[in-house]
Amino acid sequence: MYVIAIVIGILAGFGAVLFRGAIWFAQLLFFGPVMNPGNVEFSMTQLPDWLGGFSLTWVPDLYEVFQSLGPWRFVLLPAIGGLVVGLYISGTYEEVAGHGTERTLEAILVKGGKINPRIALHKTVASAVAIASGGSLGREGPIVQIGSAMGSYFGRFTDTRFTRVLVAAGGGAGIAATFNAPLAGTMFALEILLEEYYIHNVMAVAIACVMATAVARPLLHFTPLPGAQDFLVPIQFSIVNPFVEFPLYMLLGVIVALVGVLEVRSLYGVEDLFAELSVPGWVKPGIGGALLGLSALVMAVVFGINPLSSANWLFGVGYNTIHEAITGQFVFLLLLGLLAMKVVGFSLSIGSGSSGGVFSPSLFVGAMLGTAFGLVVHGLAPASTASAGAYALVGMAGVFAAAARAPLTATFIIFELSGQYTIILPLLLVSVLGSEIANKMLSEGTIYTEPLRRMGYTVQDRRIGSLEDLTPMDVMTAPVDTLVRGISVQEAIRRFRQTDHHGMPIVDESNVVVGMLTLSDLEAVLSGSILRAVEANDAETALEIEEETTVDDIGSMDVITAPPDTTLLAIVDKMESYDVGRVPIVDEGGHLLGIVTRSDILDAYDNRPRR
Question: pTM surpassing 0.85?
Fold first, then answer.
């Protein structure tokens, strides 16, 4: 598994570089040199000779083509990008839509780590266009899905119980390569994707993250020191007076929780509104893009600024805007305006069905909130508090931790992005407080798990460890005692007495599952007489039942089944969702292979390996 983790890490590193390159090229087509919504730069302006030597500066960009429209270009171009993304998604896979991390979690939770490898390519294209055209989105969610798809593909070459770990390793490696942050990538995989800290998981994920970072550093011009250029500032922040600042940071922890909850509810509230629109699905990202552009124009009018400046602040990943906030280039009211419009903008982008991440928007919102908070407290107590930039960094960690319930990931990511170890204590404090308060307010949901709940999956606070590594084949009972379709109730009673089961599948002559009969069914339909006959071993009572009554008449013919390659956690989800105590395991033709009961699940949990 560790050798495969090395391969996954290397490929995830190259994947992060190629994804940035795709965004950069798409930016040339949309905005040319005027805007950089993806916050990516490459010095290449001409293709190599072996690719024809084509000059990329000659390519006409849409911003220039629609010059006559003036500021309305900021409405049109995101709309065009949204329509392109919508059409692309409608012609490929629905998994390409959204922020991507929820699909990785779905694969880990209920699909045994299986992800279509084509998703990596399609996610790269769709998200690159969405971000490059101005979508208020992040690069991180897509690269998580891209890296996870690589982990899933190579996971087929090792034991299936390691597939989930390799999927998470690929996702974490993508984060590590994108941010020059191997520690944060490792923690992202463990805290958000796996929610497990078994030592072999940690080792595999760490190896992948180290290799991805090693590949990306020279190609993306990262330094070997902590920090990404977008977040480095020439100021070393510190705690000035702990007796004053720690209570203030605790207050900030409460505020980031409220804003994190607002962010999550806004996102999925907008998604619900778009779900109700009676227009084709591929049109919705275009509508979201147009509304995003309109919000940038509203921002420009309200604050009396150039529409280009407003668009630069609100479009894309927003790293330059975050840097400006940290270095104190915004006033208080402008910070609040940027915060509000970013929440609206990324809710429109993701909620309309576009393709991109929610990580960067959360950092953006946290930076604006933290800077605004810092301006207030530093203005009230300048001698006892750090400058507003320190609160900006802490706010970034806090809002993400609150939205994702990932305090350790948030702490590590801000430390590695900024290189500011001196504020590690407030980072931890605010992240933990914000995470726990938001967790209560969101009923233990997060910005990543809410889509799974909407898909009908049961997402637990701490998932049942190794049940995700087991399949029904590991615990099911086989062969299965069955009832043949059409047999009489009297014969069914005899079978129940012989086997001491509380339920048995009904099968046809080909052993295809067609129904389920339980003692509860018998009691409910026949007013308790049959159950008493079984329990009392009273054949005369059984003979009082009409002979023409069959198991087909009283059994449940709408039976819930599962394939053999699903996970036991998915079986638990079916049992809870449909309130059943047993699930037949069938092949593609519906033929009975075995059966899993609640007792089998409990036995598997009690006997799970202590790793």
Answer: no
